[in-house]
Amino acid sequence: MDLTVLITKAIIILVIFGITLLIATYSTYAERKVAGFLQDRLGPNRAGPWGLLQPIADAGKMFFKEDFIPAQASKWLFILGPCLAMLTALMSSAVIPFGDSIRFGQYEIPVQGIEINIGMLYIFGVVSLGVYGIMVGGWASNNKFSLLGAIRAASQNISYEIALGMSIIAILMMTGSLSVRAIVEQQAEVGFFGWGVFTQPLGFVIFLVCAFAECNRTPFDLPECETELVGGYHTEYSSMKLGFYLFAEYINMFVSSAVIASLYFGGYHYPFAAQAHEALTNALGANTGHNVATAIGTVLFFGKIFFFIFFFMWVRWTLPRFRYDQLMNLGWKSLIPLSILNVIVTGAGLLFNFNYATWAIVAVMVVLAVMSAAKAPKGAVAMQKA
Amino acid sequence: MNAAYVPSDYLPVFIQLILALGFIVTTMIVTHMVGPKRNSQKKDDPFECGIPVVGDARTPISIKYFLIAILFVLFDVEVIFMYPWAVNFKQLGVTGFLEMILFMGLLLSGFYYVIRKGVLKWE
């Protein structure tokens, strides 16, 4: 690889790294503000204007807390746990394309850490390593609550990973490539109605639910449910080790929002992107126009990401937590069969050159839901509504 | 989009890895240095809501979790098998599709057996 290209790549990675950390930090602030809004209170508003310095104050506090290791814990594993969780979270943002490309001189560099043809496989692999961080930390604490939380986290994550992988397969069949950039560009080629959410509605819903479960977010936050398990797998943690676990959760949320946005919402593509690109290159010259068009795409991509981060928070403060058997039934008995059906119907549709075949399943499901609601006794429906 | 991929495309992964490791190691060292350290026998016990601790957490756990883990290995391997198939789906055509349906049918019959055996039944 050319040294200039490598240095530019390094700069892009550094910038993305910084943005990831910044967004994760301010997600904690946003979460508390959203919670405050949804519960009709103010949220943090003391540190700085509108409480904007709150995350920095929190991080500072975390550093100056006692770094406590219980006597019975396995010391090195106890330290390794949060480090692993943080490492996998930080590594996963590498292959996401944040924008088209920057042109300067004869170089054209994609706005992406690493452009490799195994992008989706890389994300899938790194995300599945995330469970080790929680499992190692929870087990090393040598605390019953932590152990229960860790086991729950492990079994939940691995259960939902299957459906997650299956829902991606339907997308891969349509694009024929594992590169996230290629997936985004194929959506851009068709235009607005080529976005994954229109061609793969069911896959999108499955992926979204599994992303919630993989991030251990409510309604899937059984590993750390404070009403049953004190703090779950991070009961014994304090100081920045606890900070790492919380931080990793927010980074995972950011990365899964980015993956959802690029797989199902066209990534950095937006309606009339080609026309805008042409107009800008005509007005500003080939290089500047192209760079401005890239910047617009990147900003819109971040808009999509922020929407999904907000969605994660919205759901957290709206829905109650699942019971454990409900969680397992949803994962194994609903999502896995549905995602297999999704793959088969997508395949059949592709053989007849029809990209919107999975809407048939959605239609059948809606009809079944309406029928079961109509057939249910009136009292049951009223109870569900209330 | 690249037309051809070469091994050096993976070099930036190491840049990211070094960056992430550097961040983590620095933070860990700093947080170990700056915080106070006060130990006592009661404080070093595992936290169990104030109740005196009985035994430790190295106890046997429910077999259900192990069954889930074994099932996961089976099904995740299946998912990984499907990745190359999915990428080459359009070239493989009808034959590949039917073969994969056969493969999935066999696996799903196993899945049905697992459900009927009550492995996924949680009380």
Could you please describe the fold and organization of this structure?
The complex is a heterodimer of chains A (386) and B (123). Chain A is mainly alpha-helical and 386 residues long. Chain A has helices spanning 3-38, 54-64, 75-91, 119-140, 144-175, 180-190, 196-199, 201-214, 226-229, 239-264, 273-284, 286-316, 324-351, 359-375, 378-385; strands at residues 97-104, 107-112. Chain A has one domain. Chain A has a two-stranded antiparallel sheet. In chain A, a hairpin with a 2-residue loop joins β1 (97-104) and β2. The N and C termini of chain A lie far apart (62 Å). Chain B has a single domain (7-116), classed as Methane Monooxygenase Hydroxylase, Chain G, domain 1 (Up-down Bundle), CATH 1.20.58.1610. Chain B is 63% helix and 0% strand. Chain B is flat. Chains A and B meet through α1, α2, α3, α5 and α6 of A and α1, α2 and α3 of B. Chain A: It catalyses: a quinone + NADH + 5 H(+)(in) = a quinol + NAD(+) + 4 H(+)(out).
